[in-house]
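Q: How would the structure tokens look for this protein?
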Amino acid sequence: MYETRQKILPWESLDQWVAYWRFLEQKIVFTNGCFDLLHLGHITYLEEAAKLGDVLVVGLNSDESVRRLKGPSRPVFSQEARARLLAALEFVEAVVIFEEDTPLRLIEKIRPDVLVKGGDYTPETIVGADVVRSYGGRVEILPLVPGYSTTALIRRLCGG
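A: Here is the predicted structure in token form.
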């Protein structure tokens, strides 16, 4: 029986999974985010990211990391809930929760073939872009889906 928890990888087993994917000569795509209140913009973005390789690994900011980045009222959902929602997506191969404010350490550990971020980033503002390019990987910026933003959605739900 399939369980979403199986796709949530602990940091300690990451080296084994990466070695397995490399052994199978699969192209690893990496992206990251808070993914609080998963919406159509996220789904479209992740679908497009997955098309850039064979394995999509999603780095997920921990609850504490989200609080530091977004404020004390966030995240809306716990890291466990957010990780399971992401893991339920068939085109997401693995989810890894990270505690830092940026995914740099995770990017250095995985060494993805493709690093993906959304259109609200520029090549200069993508954390880890220089690392990925240093070993011949590439960095892709995908367009945002107009009208979808977690912050705007929360504002609308709260009547603001």
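The radius of gyration is 15 Å.

The chain has one domain: 4-157.

Upvote if useful.
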